[in-house]
Design brief:
Elements (H helix, E strand, L loop, with lengths): L14 H4 L8 E13 L10 E11 L9 H14 L4 H13 L7 E15 L6 E15 L2 E16 L1 H18 L7 H8 L11 E12 L8 H12 L9 H13 L4 H13 L4 E11 L6 E7 L2
Antiparallel strand pairs: 1-2, 2-3, 3-4, 4-5, 5-6, 6-7, 7-8
Helix pairs in contact: 2-3, 6-8
Amino acid sequence: MLDKTKPSFCTLPDVAADVKAKVAGTLEWVGMSEIEMPINLNADTKIPPTVARVRAEVSLDHESKRGIHMSRLYLACDKTFSHQKIDFARLSQLTQEFLVSHADLSNNAVIEVDFDALIRRKALISDNSGWRSYPVSLLVVREKREITHIELDFSVTYSSTCPCSAALARSLIQENFSQSFDKENLDYDKVLAWIGSEEGINATPHSQRSTAHIRTFLKPGTKQVPLKQYIDLVEESLQTAVQAAVKREDEQEFARINGKNFLYCEDAARRIKHVLCQQKDIEGFWLRVHHHESLHPHDATAEASSD
């Protein structure tokens, strides 16, 4: 209760609410980004709690109002992220809370949550397993009191072996073989030993670590975050996802799989697009792949989206 014995100038001013904007006009989004929050995710696999960066914004639809109540957005986020599991249902509810606290100012609200999700991954052959980190972004947009966008963004890292360099390496090996052996007098044991020697395999294809960025547009009403479902889908389409803890048999298997899956960036983008087009529980998608070239100082890239 206000102490009336104090002079009026002791009342804390609220410039955003009390002072009109010098230049009137509406704004699409106003709020905060990079808010540090803990996150305990409700996903289709167990994700250890981690730190998130949150964007919380509302529209400013009252032309003469100077600003919004940013502290109300922060306090709503703090209450939610500190005490509840986060999924799309909870984020949708949070955007509604933003609008309730800005009933006289805003019609639209958005929340975006960025974090790295750790998922336990088994080795290809051995009993080893290790953690893999996946950059993830969750986005919910509420427009005119209805949820209009639910997005799940993530990135996967994989190996890509260049088809051209593989063909060129095979050509050099053939040339080396023809110079090392007489076709009229081939000795099986010598050939077998030669194939397993550094002298025999005198050229290898170049490969590089590569990244696929995927944005999926989920159907309204989506609750739990289907993170592992879509990460698995993309990695299985590419076949060459990078590994965590491995033994020699895992590394050999990785080499074998790479040898069966030569990938230009165009090949990788087409594979991902093909499997995403078959998913009936998404409304659309966008993807972009980067092959971080080992031959060149620049990336090879490809992009695709749903129709």
